[in-house]
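Mods, move this if it's the wrong board.
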Amino acid sequence: MVLERQIRDLVERKAGGSASLKPAWEKALEPLRGLPFRELPPEAACFRSPQNAARFLQQLGQTPDPVAALRELRGAVDDSEASMHDWIQAVEAFYDYLHGHQRTPSWRGTLGYLDCCLSAWRSDAGYGSFPETVAGMLDTYGYAGEDGA
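Not the wrong board. Structure tokens:
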């Protein structure tokens, strides 16, 4: 199966030969097996943290249609000046903040907040890159959105 091989390859790349990182990445990517993808979504390879990769895949899996949800993210990326890598780093900044504040927004809440931060970034709010803008906006304003699946 193509997806299984791709997951194994990504685990190996992300672990970078470290036996201690391999189980974390295996666990993080486990939700992919339950999602309706035939091939590994390239977004999975952009994550730096296995915990955030797992959060992303779990959040994606809670949507009514994970394929459509991923298409929505890709559309947001295509409509912006930021790369997919920047978007995933922004997602990671968002997840890091939320995890520390015991918050779990919906997929729409996540994309909505990131879209708001994208507008601030476009207006040169002074935070730097798109991911830095997300982190700065969270530090300055927090997240007041609703939690939920």
